[in-house]
Amino acid sequence: MNRRNMLFGTAALLLASPARAETFEITLTDEEWRAKLTDLQYEVLREEETERAGTSPLDKEKRAGTYHCAGCDLAAFSSEQKYDSGTGWPSFWDALPNATRTKPDRGLFGTRTEVHCRRCGGHFGHVFDDGPQPTGKRFCMNGAALVFKAA
Q1: Diameter of the chain measured on Cα atoms
Q2: Which domains does the chain have, with CATH numbers?
Q3: What pLDDT digit, counting tens, does each position of 126-148 carry?
């Protein structure tokens, strides 16, 4: 590889994935997040990992209530919008107003839409266009990113 190819390759990577600085109401140091969260919560919320399908008890949760961000306790999803998607992750057809934000998640298999907490930036999961009406959306969330509070 010559210098010109390396420079063009680096420039192409930088242009293809622009850094997006987003600020959040709640910001903690890495050490503070680690002290506050379990290992799995930290991996999912702060490192954008995905829990194994079928491992979260929240997938089978049927009671009325609200699902909150495990990082900052912001109410994010209602049990009224929850449904069984058959994927092994808690799924919702919508989020509560002003609870989430999205951003492109570019990977080896294309671009998905990441969903994160609008208050602390914690990674919840991804949203897809194959859900039920009335939105047609499937918010496929990691149970480790959420805490359920019964009504």
Answers
A1: 63
A2: 25-150 (2.170.150.20)
A3: 999 999 999 999 999 999 999 99
Catalytic residue among 69, 72, 120, 140: 140
pTM above 0.90, yes or no: no
69 is catalytic: no
Cα angle vertex 62, ends 56, 65, to 5°?
95
- CA angle (118, 121, 125) in 5-degree steps: 90
**How far apart are alpha carbons 120 and 100 in whole angstroms?**
10
